């Protein structure tokens, strides 16, 4: 086997939307992923199916695996010929010990690349309305590790830092906050110099305390703070309230779990993030095309017998078109067919393939689609219905008396990711709301979370069938006014406002 390669990839500060495009592309091609505790669950959920995962659990003073052993793991996996991604919170080269990991790889001739990440000393203040530089206040920025070995003094020239008159950002210094502030005061810093501590920046649990170098330790004692957090010292901290923007978004402070089929990129997640939610995307189901589908082959060979073809999901569109192409059927043979779509997502999937929907119900569910089709069909019309093997019978009940070829084209299976513990996400400070866009994603989620107390799950559901599945699991369920992405987002905003 040829020698593999290692990529050091920065996962960013927490918000999955801040994971870089290049990082995502590299991660999708990984065969082995070695990751830290500070990598957010949203980024971990992007790890490809089948990749070997190794949790090295590094967090300040709580290392699951010593650094030297991590270096050896990277070397060993690369020597086996694998594409290895070392996924690190923030940026690999900013107190991430990335240089140490590259030393051993260099010694053994292992090829590597570095993919920088969005780093917390810049991103976290930005999400709190603090520009780390501002020409009216400071022209320099200094990033310092606040971590020191137990019993040892700081190897930091605090007097030099004070003399810079720049913004100071201390990482990994929460427990040492009183010491850091004391050293700055001893070095001559003005006791009234503004200072802030910023907790879990860019996530739903973001919190800030702004005070002064002299009073910040006492304020932290009074108000409480959780790790990870960073300390910012400088006059720019006075701008936080004036420039704060993240907390003004409708869903700031709300953590939402979005379930989806593994194959689909979630438009829902993007919409929720734009409203300020911290979104964790977890594939609840995966779909597999039914191979050697004789019934579908015969339907494709005789498309002229149908008046309508009705699609009930984007996956149904994708699978049908794949089969059409593989069968060598000219798409122009669909020219005489009218096309029905169950909702916006399905219509979008058709549009992406150059097809327009002739009919779409106002309510996006099977019963409404069946009713709409029944209202436009004439005597002699025939309907082709390529869909999931376990599709609802509601559409067929509404089409009673009309010839329908109901052909299963794909099956759904629950999807479980070992490196994201879905059940633990619903503990204190965890997920506030789970969004479900189909009954199958509810079932997939339930199968992936055995033992979870579902009464703790607030479920925002896209329609009646989805709500019924969530009700059956014992969740606290709410249904959108319309079966559309916009309506579900509106529902999530309402649920947050009720908190």
Automatic annotation (TrEMBL):
It is an enzyme of class 2 (transferase). This is uroporphyrinogen-III C-methyltransferase. Residues 5-216 form the Tetrapyrrole methylase domain. The lineage of its organism: Bacteria, Bacillati, Bacillota, Clostridia, Lachnospirales. It comes from the Bacteria. Its EC number is 2.1.1.107. Keywords: Methyltransferase, Porphyrin biosynthesis, S-adenosyl-L-methionine, Transferase. It comes from Candidatus Scatomonas pullistercoris. Belongs to the precorrin methyltransferase family. GO terms for molecular function: uroporphyrin-III C-methyltransferase activity; uroporphyrinogen-III synthase activity. GO terms for biological process: methylation; siroheme biosynthetic process. Pfam families: HEM4, TP_methylase. Residues 267-489 form the Tetrapyrrole biosynthesis uroporphyrinogen III synthase domain.
């Amino acid at each position: 086997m040829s020698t593999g390669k290692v990529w050091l990839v920065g996962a960013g500060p927490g918000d999955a939307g801040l994971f870089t495009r290049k990082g995502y592309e590299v991660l999708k091609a990984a065969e082995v992923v070695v990751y830290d505790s500070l990598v957010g669950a949203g980024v971990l959920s992007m790890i490809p199916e089948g990749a070997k995962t190794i949790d090295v659990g590094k967090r300040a003073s709580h290392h699951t695996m010593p650094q030297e052993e991590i270096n050896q793991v990277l070397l060993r996996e690369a020597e086996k010929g694998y594409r290895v991604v070392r996924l690190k919170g923030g940026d690999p080269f900013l107190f991430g010990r990335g240089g140490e990991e590259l030393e051993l790889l260099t010694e053994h001739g292992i090829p590597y690349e570095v993919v920088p990440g969005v780093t917390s000393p810049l991103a976290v203040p930005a999400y709190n309305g603090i520009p780390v530089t501002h020409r009216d206040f400071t022209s320099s920025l200094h990033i310092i590790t606040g971590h020191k070995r137990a019993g040892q003094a700081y190897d930091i020239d605090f007097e030099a830092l004070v003399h810079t008159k720049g913004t100071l950002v201390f990482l990994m210094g929460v427990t040492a906050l009183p010491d850091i502030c004391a050293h700055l005061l001893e070095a001559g810093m003005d006791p009234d110099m503004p200072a802030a501590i910023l907790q879990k920046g860019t996530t739903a649990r973001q919190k800030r305390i702004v005070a002064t170098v002299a009073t910040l330790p006492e304020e932290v004692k009074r108000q409480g703070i959780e790790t990870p957090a960073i300390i910012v010292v400088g006059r720019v901290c006075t701008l936080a309230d004036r420039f704060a923007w993240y907390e003004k978004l409708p869903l700031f402070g709300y953590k939402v779990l979005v379930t989806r089929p593994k194959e689909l990129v979630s438009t829902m997640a993007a919409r929720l993030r734009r409203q300020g939610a911290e979104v964790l995307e977890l594939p609840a189901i995966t779909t597999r095309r039914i191979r050697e589908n004789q019934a579908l082959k015969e339907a494709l060979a005789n498309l002229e017998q149908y008046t309508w073809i009705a699609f009930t999901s984007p996956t149904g569109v994708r699978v049908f078109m794949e089969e059409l192409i593989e069968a060598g059927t000219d798409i122009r043979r669909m020219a005489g067919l009218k096309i029905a779509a169950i909702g916006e997502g399905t219509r979008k999937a058709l549009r992406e393939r150059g097809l327009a929907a002739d009919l779409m119900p106002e309510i996006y569910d099977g019963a409404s689609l069946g009713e709409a089709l029944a209202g436009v069909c004439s005597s002699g019309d025939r309907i082709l219905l390529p869909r999931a093997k376990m599709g609802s019978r509601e559409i067929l009940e509404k089409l009673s008396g009309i010839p329908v070829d109901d052909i299963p084209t794909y099956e759904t299976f629950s999807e479980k990711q070992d490196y994201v513990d879905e059940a633990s996400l619903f503990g204190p400070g965890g997920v506030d709301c789970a969004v479900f866009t189909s009954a199958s994603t509810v079932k997939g989620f339930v199968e992936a979370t055995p033992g979870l107390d579902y009464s703790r799950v607030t479920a925002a559901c896209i329609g009646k069938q989805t709500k019924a599945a969530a009700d059956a699991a014992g969740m606290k369920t709410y249904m959108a006014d319309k079966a559309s992405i916009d309506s579900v987002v509106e529902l999530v905003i309402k649920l947050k406002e009720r908190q």
